[in-house]
Design goal:
There is one protein chain. The chain is an all-alpha fold. Helices cover about 75% and strands about 0% of the residues. It contains 18 helices and no strands. Helix 1 (about 10-25) crosses helix 11, helix 6 (about 130-150) crosses helix 7 (about 150-165) and helix 6 (about 130-150) packs antiparallel against helix 15 (about 335-355).
């Protein structure tokens, strides 16, 4: 008799490494600069943003680890949504991931990869110009081609990139921190934050929204549940320990950057300048090459998920043309039709990202940050899951099934507030001072609603069509 069950092959240490490797990617490299700008160069407020964002991640990660051990036969947010809330909610969650979340994130990573590639050759390169657009589009197509034509190669590159992306972080944490204490840059950064201020507490909310991008990915780690030894104990431990390590590494990296450049220079030029100041032109270039590989690795991972996301809906016999999108190419064992449509979605979001971030945005009031708002939307999607889980399972275990989900519910509501403030109220106040109007989160919600209504129509059509 054939045994189709996965072997329990991973221990706690391996699981922790997987969590760290999955989450740490490209976000920390360019969002560190954004956080400094949001907090007006105040290092203490910047660290606070990293800490609060990390605590939200840790709380939610613990709860999803609990879901993974309770619903042992399912993995991932769509499956948890189906098991806890229901099939239709799971479908709508999958539709959001397929049409907004994954393609928006993938398109941003294509730009980030192009940005750091150009900076390798010219630190002052135009990262919104035609060359960056062309290179970003090329990277997008390259990631698609590798995943569709050679899934094994894509997997091997992902493993290599996971190791490589930890190198610049580790080096800056150690060398940057020591150098900063010796040359006085780090002391000056903190002294300036204490004595000169800069930014205010409300600016932390914008920093948290940026940090959310760097922290995203932890939920994917729940997929190892079926192969983890003593998963009921080790998965929660791995997710909590792993996410604490990630938060610590990000904060130490953030501090270590000051060893290579002043806060003002970091705000203007970012980490590449810090690397070159610390290690010289050659050493700095090598470090920046590691960052490019890290970004491409993250892009590859996102494209891997993106090409399969519509397929995951189709195999449930939901969404548009499920039979077509569920078909698998016999030679590559890839859902090629799903992948093609995913690439088109990525292309659309790639175009939007550039057009919305020009000096004169093409979409006017409908221009919003597609790197942060889709991620924070995930926390809004978590809310019904936490609520229904408390209702269904709360009395069975007060700590794990009630207190922790309530904390996660509060954390998720807080992230929704962060989005409204950072991408709504804050923009409105700045624009009002100039006699203008700006409330990006409102127009994001309009776009979100239109796309979700389209998804609901496909679901309703499928479930009412007698054929």
């Amino acid at each position: 008799m054939q045994n189709n069950q996965l072997h329990k092959r991973y221990g706690l240490f391996t699981a922790i490494c997987m969590v760290v490797g999955i989450v740490i990617g490209s976000g920390v490299f360019f969002k560190a600069q954004d956080i400094l700008n949001y907090t007006d160069g105040n290092m203490l407020l910047g660290i606070l943003a990293w800490v609060i964002g990390g605590i939200v991640m840790i709380i939610c990660a613990f709860n999803f680890a609990n879901f993974a051990t309770k619903y042992a036969k399912v993995n991932g947010i769509v499956d948890y949504a189906e098991a806890i809330v229901g099939k239709k909610y799971a479908y709508m969650t999958g539709w959001f991931l397929s049409t907004i979340y994954f393609p928006a994130m993938t398109s941003v990573l294509a730009w980030v990869s192009a940005r750091y590639t150009l900076i390798l050759f010219d630190p002052k390169a135009d990262i919104t110009g035609g060359l960056c657009i062309a290179l970003g589009a090329f990277y997008l197509c390259l990631a698609y081609a590798v995943n569709v034509l050679s899934p094994k190669l894509a997997g091997k590159f992902e493993v290599s990139a996971t190791v490589i992306k930890l190198i610049p972080l580790a080096v800056i944490v150690v060398i940057g921190t020591i150098a900063g204490l010796l040359n006085g840059n780090t002391t000056e950064a903190f002294s300036s934050a204490v004595h000169n201020g800069g930014g205010d507490f409300s600016s932390v909310f914008a920093g948290i929204a940026a940090a959310a991008f760097a922290y995203e990915g932890w939920v994917i780690a729940t997929s190892i549940n079926a192969e983890l030894k003593d998963s009921k104990k080790n998965l929660p431990r791995a997710l909590v320990i792993g996410t604490i390590i990630i938060m610590a590494v990000y904060i130490l990296y953030f501090i270590g950057l000051t060893g290579g450049a002043s806060v003002d220079i970091l705000r203007a030029e970012g980490s590449p300048t810090a690397f070159k100041n610390l290690f010289g032109n050659i050493g700095g270039t090598v470090m920046n090459v590691f960052i490019v590989i890290s970004c491409l690795g993250t892009l590859n991972g996102l494209m891997l998920a993106c090409t399969r996301s519509l397929y995951s809906i189709a195999v449930r016999d939901c969404g548009p043309k499920p039979k077509t999108l569920a078909s698998v190419d016999p030679e590559t064992n890839m859902p090629s039709n799903s992948a093609v449509l995913a690439l088109l979605c990525c292309g659309a979001w790639f175009f939007y990202f550039y057009a919305a971030n020009l000096t004169e945005p093409v979409f006017g009031l409908f221009s919003f940050d597609s790197s942060e708002l889709p991620i924070i939307t995930i926390y809004a999607i978590y809310i019904p899951i936490f609520v229904m889980f408390i209702i269904k399972e709360g009395k069975k275990n007060i700590l794990k099934n009630m207190i922790m989900p309530i904390l996660a519910l509060i954390a998720s509501l807080f992230m929704v507030f962060v989005a409204i403030y950072a991408h709504g109220i804050r923009h409105y106040q700045a624009a009002a001072a100039n006699g203008e109007f700006s409330f990006p989160v409102l127009f994001y919600l309009i776009v979100f609603a239109v796309i979700m209504v389209i998804g609901a129509i496909f679901y309703k059509h499928k479930n009412t069509d007698p054929s």
